[in-house]
Predict the 3D structure of the following.
Amino acid sequence: MSKFIIPHDFNINKQLRAERNQHSAFVLWFTGLSGSGKSTIANAVEQVLFSKNLQTYSLDGDALRTGLNADLDFSTAARDENLRRVAEVSKLFTDAGIITLAAFISPLKSQRATIKQIIGADNFYEIFVDTPVAVCEARDVKGLYAKARAGIIKDFTGVSAPYEAPDSPDLVVKTAELSLEDSVEKVVNFVMQKL
Ligand SMILES: Nc1ncnc2c1ncn2[C@@H]1O[C@H](COP(=O)(O)OS(=O)(=O)O)[C@@H](OP(=O)(O)O)[C@H]1O
Ligand SMILES: Nc1ncnc2c1ncn2[C@@H]1O[C@H](COP(=O)(O)OP(=O)(O)O)[C@@H](O)[C@H]1O
């Protein structure tokens, strides 16, 4: 970053937005394998929060990769950049007073440490959607595991690229053991304690 960039101090800040919204804002960061349930849970949790008149927005891997991050593939360097950008966007959303639900595989511990550092530890909750690869593969929602096994997709997380489970996530959701309703309830209960 150039040392000649000096940010302007804006008077309408996160605190004022929180007072107007009557709730704080933070990022719920869902990490887990493809097909683990990140998007499904985030979507359902957002619906519940929205119905409670909370300010929310969802950011999702597939959606951002067709727009802002359309130039990035699935190499480690490109995933690093994908996640760095999403973390910066998430930070802007929380500054805007919005509870932000981010659903990204975010496979490496180093990536998630960077995300937490960008967003700020006080505004970041890591939710591990802990679903075994065998279960994700049996679901194969988008047919991607079959393509990865066939070698059609390279560097596929859980098959031919690594996934490092979080050491101390703020919340764990085991979707192979919990129904969708119970998974959503677990996250919503967590969020309601943080408002
Ligand atoms: N090689 C490879 N590995 C993993 N995933 C792949 C790959 N190629 C395409 N896809 C599709 O891209 C979605 C994951 O994008 P993310 O931005 O969440 O990935 S990452 O956090 O940068 O690792 C992921 O979406 P989800 O299934 O919702 O996780 C896949 O649909
Ligand atoms: N407890 C659960 N929580 C979330 N999804 C579940 C659960 N049980 C089964 N599923 C199914 O698993 C799939 C998860 O897909 P998706 O949400 O697209 O995963 P991801 O966003 O992690 O790639 C969906 O078909 C969903 O219906």
